[in-house]
Write a structure and sequence with these properties.
about 210 residues, mainly alpha, two-stranded antiparallel sheet, 6 helices, about 5% strand, flat
Length: about 210
């Protein structure tokens, strides 16, 4: 069974210079993906805060609650230790960790479980884009700051709503560059996509490998 590893380069197929060039390409795509998506997110939050001030706390709180519920549904076991030759799972630390992940996912997606992440990425960035649109449109139509002028307001509107898709494009390019062609499939069976649980075949594989 193949394990998908980001930024994994096959040295037997690439020379030294080619490996460096490939690494730089993938790094640039990754940085542009994160920079644009996070930048649009910060822009949406900042514009909303500029005119609605403390209401942003409610927005962030609701988003964190949604992300926390989602992460709690994902069966993770990161915090384990051996106690008298038994593997013990520290549920308290696991919950604290998921609270931290929910906070981080105000801005960026973090994958916590194995399996194909396509569905989870679509759901996460779909939520982020809807939130960005609502925040920016509320700012533009209800609380627009007159000091920016019409041209500045339209520029913020276009950058916040349309710029996000450029980040998504760089994300797709990044995955196509980092992963081998055998690992990237344009069409994936629905049974291989999982929103919050481990794939059944992966769970069965873990069980059989541990026997």
């Amino acid at each position: 069974e193949k394990t998908l590893i980001r930024s994994q380069y096959r040295k037997e197929q690439l020379g030294g210079c080619e490996s460096i060039i490939q690494f730089l390409k993938d790094t640039v795509m990754l940085c542009l993906w994160r920079l644009i998506t996070i930048g649009c997110r910060v822009l949406a939050l900042a514009t909303f805060t500029a005119c609605f001030s403390w209401w942003i706390l409610l927005v962030v709180l609701l988003h964190c609650i949604i992300m926390l519920c989602w992460t709690c549904l994902q069966p993770t076991e990161y915090f384990q230790h051996t106690d008298e030759e038994k593997v013990v799972h520290d549920s308290c630390l696991e919950k604290l960790f998921k609270c931290f992940v929910a906070y981080v996912q105000i801005f960026a997606f973090l994958n916590l479980i194995k399996g194909r992440t396509r569905l989870r990425v679509i759901v996460y960035y779909g939520i982020i884009y809807v939130e960005n649109c609502v925040l920016i449109l509320l700012w533009y139509f209800l609380g627009q700051c007159s000091s920016m002028g019409e041209a500045g307001s339209i520029a913020v509107l276009v950058i916040g709503l349309a710029g996000f898709w450029f980040g998504m494009a760089f994300m797709v390019i990044h995955y196509m560059c980092c992963q081998s062609r055998q690992e990237i499939q344009l069409v994936v069976p629905w049974s291989d996509l999982h929103l919050y649980s481990k794939p059944k075949d992966a769970a069965n594989h873990e069980k059989t490998s541990s026997v």
